[in-house]
Every structure is written in C-alpha cells, then in structure tokens.
Amino acid sequence: MVRSALNTLTERINKFSNQELISKCLLSYLIIKSLFLDLVYVFPILIFILLFVFIDKSYFQKPLFWGSVILLLIPHLFVNYFSAANHFFITIYILIILCISSIFKNDQEHILRLNAKYILAVLMIFAVIQKLISEEFMSGQTIGYMGYTGQLFKLPTWFFPEIKDAVGFNHQQINKEILDLPVTFSLKQPFPYFKEFSLLFTYITIFAEIIFAALLFVKSEFLKNSFFALFVFALILTRQETGFILLVSILLMMQLKDKSALFKTIYFGLFILSLGLTIVQWGFV
Amino acid sequence: MVVVAAYQIYLSQTDDLTQWKGGGYGMYTTIHPTYNKITFNDSLVHINFKGDGSEEAFKESYYDFLLYPNRNTLRTLISITTFADIDSLNVKIHELEFDINNHTATYGEVCFEYTYRKDK
To answer: Which domain holds residue B4?
Structure first.
C-alpha cells in the first residue's frame, strides 16, 4: 500500500515540467518569506502577481511575471545587502534563471539544469574557501561553540537528555544579563571528547562540500544524487537553516535529468520537509 | 554570483564585514557576530536599551552594526539612541571568545574600536 502510494506520488510529481514544479516550490517559499518582509512598496506588485497567478495558468512561462517578482525583491536586497541572509541571494539567482528559461522555452530544461549545476558548484566552492581561510573554523572552535549552545545538532539532541541538559545550561549561561565587561562563563561539555568530535566534524564538513562540488560534474545520476540527498538530509538533522536547505533542494531538482523520477520525488520531499519546518518556525526563513 | 561572493570575501578579509552575510556563503565559519557586545564610552549597550527611536528600529540598527561595523552603520545606531547629541563617543565591540579546552566563553577582547565625533 505504501509502495503504491509512493508510486502515485512519484507519478504525479513527475507530471509537472521542471519549470512548473520549481516555480510552484519557489513561490510557496516566497509566500512564507514575504510574511517576514516589512516592505510597504510590495503591495501593488503583490496584487499584480496574485492576479497573474489566478488568471493565467501558465504564469510560470511568462517573463513579465518573473520580472515582477524580481522587481519585488531587488529593492529589499539593495537596502539589506550586508544583512540579508546568503540564501536570499540564491533566491534572486533562481528567479533570474526562471525568467531567462521562460524566454527561451525550447531550451528550458537545459537552461535550468546547467545554471543550477553551476550555482551549486560556486556555492560549495565558496563555502569551502570561506571555511579554509577561517582559523576559527579550522581549529574546531566554531563547530564546538555551536555544539555547546545547541545551534548545531539540535534535532539529535532531543534523543539524548544529558546532552540536552548541558546545552540548556550553556544557553542559559550565555544569555545571562551582563553588567560589566570582561566576563567569563563556564560551560558544560555536551559529551566527553567533544573537542575531538568538533574537529572531526569540521573536517567531515569540508570534505563533504568538496565531494558535493566534484560530484556535480560526474555522469552517474544515481551516485551523485544519492550523495546530494544524504547531504541535504544531514543538513536538516544538524542545522536549522531550513530556508537555505529548501533552496538547495530546489536547485537539486533543477539539475536533475528528465529520467530521474525517483530523485525528483526525494528532493521534493526534502523541500516539503524544510518548508514545513520553516512554517512552524523550527528553522530560519 | 562569483563576483558577489568574491567581493564578500574581499570585504570580510580587508574590512569588518562578517563572513555570515553579503552573499559569500561563509555561514558557520565563525561564531555569529550578533553574540558580540557593544560598549559606548565603556558602558554596555543592552539590546533592550531604550533610545529615542522605536525598539524595532534600534534592534535592527544594533544588529546591522554588529554584522558590518563601520561609520555608516554606527551613525544609524547612534542616531536613534540618547547618545545622538553627545559630541564624542568611544565605541567598542567585544568579541565572544570560546575556549573549547577550558569549556569557557569570554567577552573581553575588543575586535572593533571607533571614536565617533558628531561633527565629522
């Protein structure tokens, strides 16, 4: 019965063209995101977009539609260039690609696939460079601190009460009211050998990102997409960056070849999971 | 995309922009800068500080300053505090330093210092 339901789901998801499915996913995210954007000028453009979506069923094939959505977000990026989250930049890049692919309809799948591949590659390469040039990261201090205060591995800590207690204690310590500086807080180690664990996790993170970037250029669809799906799933387990994760899931759907029905369903599932976690505010939008 | 990310790395290495922002994908490479603390004339500025502007505007400019400390973000922050009319103000950002060997976190070292003058 589960298998039959999964088959039906896969069939239905794969009925959509990549352009349509990605448009729907990205717009769902933007609707959630817009609730957090305090933008007065948005209103008239938003009305225009809503009218477009309801009146024209092939809205996702219209450059005017995508141009309007970009127009909606560019001023926000311009004003908040140095405070906007990195994945907001990715949102803009995806919108630009959708706009271009709606102009060149004959090459749509190719445009989506190629651009997603290079966006993911650049993203991973820069993520690795940033980590390699950060002494704080390479020494394991960053991962260590985030582990001590529950910013990493939040989901797994639910199953280990002792770790949860230590993280809770550390969180309280850090958020104590400070009256004067300098000040030092004593923290609890989540579990023995956490320093070694942090260092190991630091190197695993860099290694995984290098492998990710390299696999984008490997031909075997099964090999690379199995790794990408595991990578995204690990991100969900370890970090609360659900907005970032759902955009990576969208990019992964975009880079798929037509025949990869199973992976399209998996990435769509990861997208829905991340969107759900974003809506319930477990993660960041 | 490459230009944006490269520019971000340039600013984070040569200026005070945090690795976390600016489209360079350096999230989780440092402890988030919003944990850092600000002092005005060696007095700690609290996030629930009551300035002349709204609480929301204060919080936004407080965090903007921590993400990219520079004269512009500082000017915005000061403009909505009761310090806006003071002629000279010594502003410091104290970094949160984590010591995994001793299981401690310390606010002490100054990672940014600037003397703000109203007339400049």
So the answer is: 1-30
Q: Does ipTM come in above 0.90?
A: no
Total structural domains within chain B: 2
Mean pLDDT, chain B cut into blocks of 10 residues (120 residues total): 96 94 93 92 77 75 93 88 81 93 91 83
Is B13 near chain A, with CB under 8 Å?
A: yes
Question: Greater confidence, A271 or A155?
Answer: A271
Average pLDDT over residues A36-40: 71
Among chain B residues, CA nearest to A189: B103
Q: B29 with A142: CB under 8 angstroms?
A: yes
Say whether B24 and A130 touch across the interface (CB within 8 A): yes
Counting residues of chain B whose pLDDT is more than 90, the rounded percentage is: 58
Q: Is any Cβ of chain A less than 8 angstroms from the Cβ of B100?
A: yes
- The answer to whether residue A144 sits within a structural domain is yes
Q: Which residues of A touch B62 (CB under 8 A)?
A: none
- d(CA A58, CA A52) in angstroms, rounded, equals 9
Same-domain pairing of B82 and B53:
yes
Range of the domain at A187: 134-217
For residue A268, what are the CA distances in angstroms to A17, A208, B59? 13, 22, 36
